[in-house]
Amino acid sequence: MHEECGIFGIYDRENKNLNVAQLSYLSLYALQHRGQESAGIAVSDGKKILIYKDLGLVSEVFDEEKLSILQGNCAVGHVRYSAKGKDLWKSSQPLINEHRRKTFVLAHNGSLMNSTELKAKLTQETNLSRSTTNTEIMCSLIAERNEEDIEGAIKSVAAQLKGAFSLIIMTNEKLIGLRDHCGFRPLSLGKLKGSYLFASETSAFNLIGAEFIREVEPGEMIVIDKNGLKSFRILPAGKAAFCVFEFVYLARPDSDIYGENVAFSRQKMGWRLAQEHPVEADLVIPVPDSGRYAAIGYAYQSGIPYGEGLLRNHYIGRTFIQPMQSIREGLVKIKLSPIKKILKGQRVVLVDDSIVRGTTSKKLIRLLKEAGAREVHLRISSPPVMWPCFYGIDTPSKKDLWAANHSLEETRKWLGADSLGHISIEGLCSVFDKIPADNFCLACFDGKYPI
Which CATH architecture has domain 261-434? Predict the structure, then answer.
């Protein structure tokens, strides 16, 4: 499952001489897992906006010299995963445009379902040649609005959007954050020395010592300027549809979303998984790193010892960021190496977060058995992924989702596992203390799309 973007914004409204470019750079490090193909930072000094962006990781795109040029008191940062292999520089963000001859930049996390319809509404004079992204369409729509202020333009455009969008928009005088009416993708509000911040995840606040205030509510727009913070409900309250896959896999373990810690939630998924699918075994091991907390929970609940039987190479990044399937498959052995001394002769419970195409799971089970594991019992901390996502996670089409086209027993045999168990949808939703089950989007599991 591919997350598509991470966004960050900061406004130093009290002139505390914060280095907003450097803080954005550090925060994008904390959001790097949300996109590893491009990075960008835009900075405003109150008179002009300067942007630097390029393909690559945050550490590859920026250095001390580039950051020193980005001077100002307001900034927006973005990391991106390019959907469907389009890792084009011109699609990297933030994007820049003008509304009534005043410059603004926009960073987006999510995906629109009516982008073709929206593009048709644009005038012929609008130049859409720079990229093919939803973000550019939104920028162009805002640019064409006749409202006197940009807040009015944003409100009018937001009402036309159908799908998932968490946005951060910056002008020379303002920083604006908003969320779609279902709240698909996360967006948090924070504070640092009197300055306000937005970020996709609270892990960005943790890194720079900022204080988490609250989530931006679904349908809410928050405007920050020199006078402080103002909140507006610009979209009618709809049924909440928070992406449950943020907890299963996408978000960093040290992030909190709606009062629920991601790492602890994954650990509770492991507890429930052990209750639903017990097995006699000698060792519980995770697929590192995404399966680790669920594996800890499984081991605790089952009483089976926890161990690390797979070593992850941390110097190559996540295999799923490679757009080509052939490249992904070739990197499995480079990324994960079995530890034979730990595995030999053991009945192993292997815990992972999901099965999408299934090719990685199949290769891992073979690796474990080649390393001497006597049995491999695969346990998955999410229900079977049977439907594609249209709300900001780049998933294969339904024909390429293994669980959508095969029974559980067919999957087990093809993978080569001695047994296979997924957590149930009810079990997954039960692990949360503060989020009701009907506030989640579960479409990838049950096909019930909120929009």
Answer: 3-Layer(aba) Sandwich (3.40)
Q: Which residues are catalytic?
A: 5
Q: Is the dihedral of CA 73, 79, 82, 86 positive or negative?
A: positive
Kindly report, as residue ranges, where domains of CATH 3.40.50.2020 are found in the chain.
Answer: 261-434
**Structure confidence by residue, pLDDT tens digits, 275-292:** 999 999 999 999 999 999
For residue 334, the one-letter residue type is I
Residue 421's CB is within 10 A of a number of other CB atoms, namely 19
DSSP bridge partners of 2: 394
Task: Determine how many CB atoms are found less than 10 A away from the CB of residue 143.
Answer: 17
pLDDT value at residue 132: 62
Q: Which CATH class for the 2-238 domain?
A: alpha beta
Looking at the chain, the domain(s) classified CATH 3.60.20.10 span 2-238
Q: So what's the pLDDT on residue 321?
A: 46
Task: State the amino acid at position 302 in one-letter form.
Answer: S
Containing H/E element for 166?
Answer: strand 163-171
Give the CA radius of gyration of the chain.
22
Query: pLDDT tens digit string along 129-149?
Result: 455 678 999 999 999 999 999
With CA atoms as reference, report the closest residue to 54 among 74, 31, 78: 78
pLDDT for residue 323? 47
Sequence-distant (≥ 6) Cβ neighbours of residue 110 within 8 angstroms: 4, 5, 134, 163, 164, 165, 166, 180, 184, 185, 391, 392
What is the Cβ-side half-sphere exposure of residue 253, based on CA atoms within 13 angstroms?
A: 13
pLDDT at residue 28 is higher than 80: yes
Q: Is the peptide bond before 87 cis (omega within 30 degrees of 0)?
A: no
